[in-house]
Amino acid sequence: MALTSQVSWRKAAVTSMSLAMMAATALVGAAPVAALAVGDCFEPADAHSHAAEAPSHAKARPGAAAGAHDPNHLTAAQVAAREADFAAAKRERTGKAPMEGPSIAAATVTIPVVVHVIRKDTTRAGGNIPDSMITSQINVLNQAYAGSTGGAPTAFQFQLQSINRVTNTSWYPIVSGSSAERSMKTSLRQGGKNTLNMYLGALSGGLLGWATFPQRNLSSMDGVVVLSESLPGGTSANYNQGDTGTHEVGHWLNLYHTFQGGCSGNGDYVSDTPAEASPAYQCPTGRNTCSSTGVDPIHNFMDYTYDSCMYQFTTGQASRMLSAWNTYRAS
Fold this sequence. Notes:
The protein is of the alpha/beta class.
């Protein structure tokens, strides 16, 4: 699909999509057992137990503060440990060796979403974004993960459960890796492994968001943190159509960046995303940083391009997410 027509269609679809469909969908904790053997993915090691220490992900805009480091630029050793743990967890869950599959199977997983709006006061400038931006964000997630924006469909859809507004100046702005972040999440997180907790607010260091990866044991830190003004209708120029949320949820569902590992090795452990040497910014059409087949996947949700430029997951990414869900988040 041409990018210009895709973007126009997407904006119209997100605006018109009703939450009635989501409210009518019964929650499903897991895909059918038959899907467990379909589409192997990778396991992000948890931060406190099995594999090597695994930091969460932080996405930064170009020109972000000098100290704004993305802690998810992993070393080869970290990736190897995470992959080994994922394979072991799948064997324990299914009782057999991991298997690859060509598709995600005809399964649907509805993910309950609890949104925490972290604010310093009750004004918009103080972080108190309206409900309409949040419901639009859920719409964006549903469009992206259904493949309606031009990519492969995944097994996932999202249902907003509640919006929790918290006025706390000690948590605002949200600082990645801080004791305040831990206090915030420990105090507020709701639900089990299958519940997506989204924390919205101003973020330190010019970051757009970060996320935890799934793990064997549920941590109070589990969830995604997203700059509130990156939601649809926000003020974060070029990053205000909701795809920071799409990107961070991809990590929560166990995807690496498309540029993980650069041009060598297994890269992002998804076979149908071409290798990419480094993050892509803006929308550099035709960019090709590796000698292997395929130009850089700048339109993939797991790159760093403008929201208007990214619109797709691949079949391999869809399969990887479902396998990780069945291994780590399904009840």
